[in-house]
Amino acid sequence: MSETHPLTTTTFDLPGYRVVKSFGVVRGIIVRSRSIIGNIGASLQSLVGGNISLYTELCERTRGDAFQLMLAHAGELGANAVIGVRYDATEIGAGITEVLCYGTAVFVEPVSR
User: Fold this and answer.
1) How far apart are CA 9 and CA 17, in angstroms?
2) Is the predicted pLDDT of residue 113 greater than 70, yes or no?
């Protein structure tokens, strides 16, 4: 299951909030490799076609970990929100992938009505 945070968004504003301070870019980086056992299981799943759940779960877990690291980085700076959240992935070797989650750390306040 994917985790989220109520004050994160892929857009550059949060409806009902105003940005009071920007802390700049924050990121979470994870580098993962597939295990031999996972590769064997995924190979068996690929024989019947469809979703390869072993890889799906690995990808979800990796993205979730990168997201949590990004939130921790933002928290260390004093931010309470992250806007413009994005993911990027790069294969840096055979079976080794880097997943980067990044955005702009900001401090927001609710807009007075």
Assistant:
1) 12
2) no
Residues near 4 by beta carbon (within 8 Å), at least 6 away in sequence: 67
Q: Which backbone phi and psi does 98 adopt, to 5 degrees?
A: -100, 135
Number of domains in the chain: 1
Query: What CATH number is attached to the domain comprising 98?
Result: 3.30.110.70
Q: Which residues contact 93 (CB under 8 A, 6 or more apart)?
A: none
Please state whether the predicted TM-score (pTM) of the whole model is above 0.90. no
Q: Is residue 1 part of a domain?
A: no
- For residues 69 and 30, the answer to whether their CB atoms sit within 8 Å is yes
Work out the average pLDDT over 8-31. Answer: 95
- Give the pair of three-digit tokens for residue 103: 């955005």
Return left, alpha or beta for 112; rule: phi > 0 is left, psi -120 to 50 is alpha, else beta: beta
For the chain, report the end-to-end CA distance as a whole number of angstroms.
Answer: 35
In a domain, 9, yes or no: no
